[in-house]
Every structure is written in C-alpha cells, then in structure tokens.
Amino acid sequence: MTEARFDEIVHAPQRLRILAMLDAISGRVEFAALRDALGVADSVVSKHLKVLADAGYVSVTKAAALGRQRTWVTLTPTGEDAYAAHVAALRDITAGHPRVDGPV
After folding, report:
1. What residue ranges are annotated as transmembrane (predicted)?
2. Residues 6+ apart with CB under 8 A from 45
3. Which has the closest alpha carbon to 77: 30, 26, 35?
C-alpha cells in the first residue's frame, strides 16, 4: 500500500496528466504524443518535462529515427512512487479526511 503524500511537483495539472499517461502505459511515450494528448504547445510540454526530469520523476532520451530526432519520455521508479503517493493523497482529500503535515 502506498503512503499518501501530496506532491506539489506532481500536482500541476499538465504534470499530473503527463504522469498519469506514462503510468497508464507502463512504458515510454514520444514527446509528440504527449503534446498532442495534452493539446498544448511544444514549449509547455518541454517546461513541464524539465521540472519532472529535474525531480527524477521522468527520464528524457533523444534518438534519431528515419532521419529525424525523436524525444522519448519514460516514467522512473521514483516518478511511479511520487505519482502513486500523490493520487493516494488526492483520494484521502476527496474522501473527506485530508492528511495535514504541519500547523493549520
């Protein structure tokens, strides 16, 4: 059972959607597929991937294929744990018993 832990990095809507997509496929996804699924500009996806990569939640690799550079994004074990903990925290909050980590 994953311990519930609210994560400000995960919580941003686009980052949450990126992690949810990666978690659902348990693999890697191409940058263009993320961009299209999110319906945002390349720069928006890049910005959020940088934050996730800096936190160690995703790995980003580039490879040449058919004469063009492709970027692939993979959910790391650290990212899996952070995503699962955040989803558990959201479930606690929506169930009416939020976890409080300090003075209110």
Report:
1. none
2. 14, 18, 31, 34, 35, 38
3. 26
Nearest to 76 by CA among 48, 54, 44, 91: 54
Please report, rounded to a whole number, the percentage of residues in the chain having pLDDT higher than 70. 91
Lowest mean pLDDT among 4-18, 30-44, 57-71, 86-100: 86-100
In the chain, domain spans: 8-94
The structure tokens listed for 97 are 């018993």
Q: Is the pLDDT of residue 8 over 80?
A: yes
Out of 1.20.1250.20, 1.10.10.60, 1.10.10.10, 3.40.50.150, the CATH code matching 8-94 is 1.10.10.10
